[in-house]
């Protein structure tokens, strides 16, 4: 996942005029047109001369740029001359990257299942962390010593190092939810550091005293540092998702809206490159894009925030949507199940709400399930078949935009009448099957036309399997999209003119209002409290400033959602709902409808990063496989189709 900070990356960007109130007020920081993240900006680092010599030896090239320290972003890579669009500004040989698969102890890590392919993704991450620990501990004896020395020794800008009191300032935010593993599941690898140390890393060190890795408190601190280094500096390379530390690539900062390079792999030359996406003037900072990340996500993953961030949003878990709809249905049923929703509200207010794994069956063991709960379970399963669940089971809500189409369609589906639900199930199934079959038929015809039987027979079994997998993936995606369109259309039809349409709008708006109110209750402070803090922003401790800029935009997005769908004329509220449904697609990456014999709706796994340009999610482009092999020149791999579409299958750090 392309994360934000090369060596405690700084945030940047001047606060935009107007916009939401989440920007720092003029006069709260130094000049009114300047902003420096209160945490995460690295200054000059020791070892820069040694690093430059190491780059020359390893043929890591950045001839048109130089290291500098800037007032807004801290350490940065700056153009040393005018750079033309399309010019390669950085080149890193494939074998200069550091991975679990090519470090000095790769055979031991392989024996422990910590290299590709591991049984669990988190073990692959632990493999790279151990590799970084080992190479760092070797110091000057390590091939990557000068590179690792350039990474900051002080990682205390990362929330993993925050005190309990500081961390509580993030309560209610997406960062808090993800790091604790409450509401959003699973928890981050950084959050699991104590457990992983005790169960994986410490036993590994004890079994291999010959590696020289320290144990005890010193070993734990080295592990925590390496975890932060991998979280905020590593990249995911290629379709096979090899996690690697890529020198110089990780020196570029992220500034929302100012990206001027993209990531690229040249398979012919076996080099990873950064390509200028526009002309860059001498003295201008080279800026990478870590994805369309909110301040909360930037702080969690990279340890910095921005003054004005167009990607700020609130994240609403699916479990909260289902709970709010269940409460309304219980109320309409005359109080059935009302005691449990009250309990859930108290739990969610204290951050104890059930996460994705607990959406179904919230009843206590041995307690008979009531009719409302059974109904909600059925509607939940229907919504999942219709592809209405977003990636990671959270909806992103932005101030000034209609709510996500899939969120509105999900609320409609949860509240649907028995007849509406039956129609949705039948029509969704038909649409998904038809869409999947169309893709499969098109692919089969295209293959025969393109190659003929003789050439097709000459293709290897691996090539055939790869083609089949690609077709199955495309068919699955088409099936989910077709089913979700059925749900969107049905929700739009339900909001038609007349008494029935008004009644449907009222019910949906009531769920939205309860949902926003419940989300806002989860923060440790109110929106008004945070707005009152802004004038004294400069006097707050750095971590409190960072937490304020992480949570305030989320509250503003939730308050805007509530204002748009409550306390306004019903015609205006219905118009917002229709605008939401018209804003599709429904739920990219969601799990969805069963379509063909091969199935449809690939599970939404942990996403990695975003495009090299301004993109929703990094690393979505397809890449041909390959390791940067064990000490040799492997290929990180980039498929032609992904390059043609401008997608870069690279990302930075842990999944977001």
TrEMBL record:
Residues 447-457 have a biased composition (Basic residues). Residues 9-24, 622-635 have a biased composition (Gly residues). GO terms for molecular function: protein-lysine N-methyltransferase activity. Keywords: Methyltransferase, S-adenosyl-L-methionine, Transferase. Residues 361-370 have a biased composition (Acidic residues). The keyword Membrane does not apply. This is SET domain-containing protein. It comes from Edaphochlamys debaryana.
């Amino acid at each position: 996942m392309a994360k934000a900070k090369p060596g405690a990356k700084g945030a940047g960007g001047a606060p935009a005029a107007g916009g939401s109130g989440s920007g720092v007020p003029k006069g709260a920081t130094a000049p009114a047109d300047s902003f420096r993240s209160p945490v995460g900006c690295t200054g000059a680092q020791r070892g820069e001369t040694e690093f430059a010599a190491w780059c020359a030896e390893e043929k890591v090239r950045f001839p048109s740029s130089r290291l500098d320290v800037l007032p807004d972003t801290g350490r940065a890579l700056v153009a040393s001359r005018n750079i033309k669009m399309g010019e390669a500004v950085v080149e890193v040989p494939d074998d200069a990257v550091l991975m679990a698969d090519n470090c000095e102890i790769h055979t031991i890590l392989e024996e422990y299942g910590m290299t590709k392919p591991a049984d669990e993704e988190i073990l692959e991450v632990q493999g790279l962390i151990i590799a970084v620990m080992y190479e760092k501990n070797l110091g000057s004896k390590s091939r990557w010593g000068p590179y690792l020395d350039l990474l900051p020794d002080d990682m205390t800008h990362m929330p993993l190092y925050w005190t309990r009191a500081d961390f509580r300032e993030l309560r209610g935010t997406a960062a808090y939810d993800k790091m604790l593993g409450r509401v959003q599941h699973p928890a981050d690898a950084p959050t699991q550091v104590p457990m992983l140390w005790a169960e994986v890393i410490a036993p590994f060190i004890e079994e291999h005293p010959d590696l020289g890795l320290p144990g005890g408190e010193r070993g734990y601190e080295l592990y925590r540092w390496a975890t932060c280094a991998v979280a905020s500096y590593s990249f995911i390379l290629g379709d096979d998702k090899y996690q690697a530390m890529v020198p110089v690539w990780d020196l570029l900062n992220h500034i929302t809206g100012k990206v001027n390079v993209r990531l690229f792999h040249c398979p012919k030359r076996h080099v990873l490159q950064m390509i200028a996406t526009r002309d860059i003037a001498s003295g201008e900072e080279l800026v990478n894009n870590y994805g369309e990340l909110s301040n909360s996500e930037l702080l969690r993953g990279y340890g910095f925030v921005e003054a004005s961030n167009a990607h700020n949003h609130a994240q609403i878990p699916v479990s909260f949507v289902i709970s709010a709809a269940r409460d309304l249905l219980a109320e309409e049923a005359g109080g059935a199940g009302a005691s449990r929703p009250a309990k859930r509200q108290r739990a969610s207010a204290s951050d104890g709400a059930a996460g994705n794994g607990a959406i179904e069956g919230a009843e206590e063991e041995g307690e008979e399930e009531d009719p409302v709960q059974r109904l909600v379970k059925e509607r939940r399963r229907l919504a999942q078949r219709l592809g209405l669940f977003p990636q990671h089971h959270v909806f992103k809500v932005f101030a000034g935009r209609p709510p996500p189409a899939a969120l509105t369609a999900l609320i409609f589906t949860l509240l649907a009448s028995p007849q509406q639900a039956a129609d949705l199930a039948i029509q969704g199934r038909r649409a998904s099957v038809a869409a999947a079959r169309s893709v499969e038929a098109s692919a089969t015809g295209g293959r025969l036309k393109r190659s003929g039987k003789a050439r097709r027979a000459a293709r290897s079994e691996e090539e055939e399997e790869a083609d089949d997998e690609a077709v199955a993936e495309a068919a699955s995606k088409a099936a989910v999209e077709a089913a979700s369109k059925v749900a969107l259309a049905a929700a739009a039809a339900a909001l038609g003119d007349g008494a029935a349409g008004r009644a449907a709008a009222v019910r949906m708006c009531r769920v939205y209002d309860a949902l926003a109110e419940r989300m806002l209750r989860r923060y440790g402070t109110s929106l008004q409290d945070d707005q009152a803090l802004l004038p004294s922003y400069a006097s707050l401790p750095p971590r409190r400033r960072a937490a304020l800029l992480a949570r305030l935009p989320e509250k503003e997005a939730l308050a805007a959602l509530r204002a748009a769908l409550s306390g306004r004329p019903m015609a205006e509220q219905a118009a917002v709902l229709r605008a939401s449904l018209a804003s599709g697609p429904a739920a990219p990456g969601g799990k969805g409808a069963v379509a063909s014999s091969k199935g449809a709706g690939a599970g939404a796994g942990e996403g990695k990063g975003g495009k090299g340009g301004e993109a929703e999610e990094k690393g979505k482009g397809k890449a041909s496989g390959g390791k940067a092999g064990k000490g040799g020149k492997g290929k990180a791999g980039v498929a032609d189709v992904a390059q043609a579409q401008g997608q870069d299958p690279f990302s930075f750090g842990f999944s977001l």
